[in-house]
Amino acid sequence: MKHSDIQCVGINTYLHVSARGGGILTDAKTQFLPSIFPRIAAAIFVFLLIGSLSLVCAGGVALVDPMLIHGGDVEHANGKIISIGPGKDFVLETASGQHLVFQCGDQCRASLGHMQRHLRERAHTDVYYIEGPGKRLMAVNVD
User: Fold this and answer.
1) Is the pLDDT of residue 75 over 80?
2) How far apart are CA 66 and CA 69, in angstroms?
3) HSE-up of 112 (CA within 13 Å, CB side)?
4) Whole-angstrom Cα distance, residue 92 to residue 125?
5) pTM reported for the whole predicted model
6) Could you tell me the residue ranges of all domains in the chain?
7) How far apart are CA 128 and CA 62, in angstroms?
8) Burial letters 98-129, b for 16+ CB under 10 A, else e
9) Per-residue model confidence (pLDDT) at position 130
10) Structure letter (DSSP) for residue 133
């Protein structure tokens, strides 16, 4: 059996020619398709690997970010704002029904308009705070 090597546009295709002159050729398509599927599978695997690593990194940054910005002594509470005032001070009701009173002073990164929207819409609110003198809860960031 003779083997003829035909190269066309960088794709090696091997045609098997019978030595008896019968001219029996193996279809080039059956030689090409098995070689493309592993490449497609590898491309999908790399795409999924990069996507999953990106999600893990983004989630890690979201968990650590408040502590990097505000320091290690910052605590977190979440719930719904039930009242605002005087000024930007507000009361937060947690999922367990506990009411937490926060003071939002000059160091507080919160917009009064944003907090009022949370109150009006009964939206979920995340509060990062520190415990001040007299066990007062001083909000550092409200979102």
Assistant:
1) yes
2) 5
3) 9
4) 8
5) 0.55
6) 2-69, 75-142
7) 13
8) eeeebebeeebebeeeebeebbeeeeebebbb
9) 86
10) G
Task: Place 4 in a pLDDT band, splitting at 50, 70 and 90.
Answer: low
Residue range 10-41, pLDDT digits in tens: 555 555 554 554 444 555 556 666 677 888 88
Identify the helix (H) or strand (E) that includes residue 39.
helix 28-70
In angstroms, the CA 14 to CA 31 distance is 8
Return the pLDDT at 141.
84
Distance CA 4, CA 98 (A): 82
Domain 75-142 architecture: Beta Barrel (2.40)
In total, the chain counts a number of residues equal to 143
Question: Tell me, what's the pLDDT at 23?
Answer: 45
